[in-house]
Amino acid sequence: MSHSTTSPQHPVWSEDLLWALSVFDAAVLLVDGDLHITHANPAAHALAAKVDPDRPEPESLLARLPRDAWQPGSGVGRWRSDIAIGDAIVLQASAYCGLRHGEMRRFIVIEDVSERIARERELTSRHDELERTYRRLASTQEQLLQTEKMASIGQLAAGVAHEINNPIGYVHSNLGTLRDYTGALISLVEAYGREIGDEHQAAPQLQQVRERLDIDFIVGDLPQLLDESREGIERVTKIVQDLKEFSHVGRDEPMRPVDLHKGLDSTLNIVWNDLKYKVRLEKHYGELPNVECHASEINQVFMNLLINAGQSIAERGTITVATGTDGDEAWISIADSGCGIPDESLARIFDPFYTTKPIGRGTGLGLAICYGIIAKHHGRIEVSSRLGFGSTFKIVLPVKQPRLESADA
């Protein structure tokens, strides 16, 4: 049923009011107590045609208001809400209800706020994207600072290791000489004991001194003490040498043939303190030729994978390191009996900033860095995992780096 702009059975609104409504940008509907439109301004007709071209009458706007719009404040009051029409149109409707000359009157204002809502959504989306970008940049900056710090520490460690080598060298040499001197003195003491004999007058007194100083125990224990000290110095020497090799900065140097077993053992020696309390290590080394690479970068890959393997083991477990060759490629696998990786995460573990570790335990860059290093060496990393049973990372590297064809070839 169609309604005219004004209904003759209701009092006519003042001409000034109607004129004001005619130039009003928002759609305005004047409704009587029976929910009949007594007046609709031109903006209401235009909005009705936009919202529903098949029903361009203002009644189509009225039909979109929920029933609770007519019952605010027990019949007298106001109501306001947004009305979404599809995905593109949002209307903001306000209904004002009151009594006029004893009859209920309703004054309804409807605005098309689609563009404003779209702008707000776009601003919200841009704000969220900026927040994500900021967090990524902040994380990248933190990682770059950490990388720079680690590079500085690496150079410092190499310098410190070089300085430590000198005192370790002469302490090691002195311990060897001291053992020789001690052996000579002990031989002399034993010879004196045999020459004096029981018949000599001083023998009882010397025997008392020998017993009081516990010479027999010293003679037996001193060589063992010297051997243990020398063994400790040799171990420190090995750690310092491993640290020098691990921290060697040679990224601008050409790749050279490297003994990967030596790099593995050096890296294990460095990280073993973090693993030894909960990890049983198994090594199954095959025959490996020297592989062309940057040793310090490959050692960094070993370290990241070994630390990850250790972190995946909660209490007690096994890490198995194996090596071998396949044609002109060398491979190194690092397997753990840890918690494993969920299937949905396997495809993303090499993505920058992606991590399954708890907050504060990982930046999500370790495996991404490993991937980049191995790709730079024209190799690949293969991973297999079973949730609750552990993971295996297999590094495959060409024994010889591919050579670029010369321009004359």
From TrEMBL:
Pfam families: HATPase_c. One of its GO terms (molecular function) is phosphorelay sensor kinase activity. Keywords: Coiled coil, Kinase, Phosphoprotein, Transferase. It catalyses: ATP + protein L-histidine = ADP + protein N-phospho-L-histidine. Residues 120-147 form a coiled coil. CDD domains: HisKA. Residues 159-401 form the Histidine kinase domain. Its EC number is 2.7.13.3. This is histidine kinase.
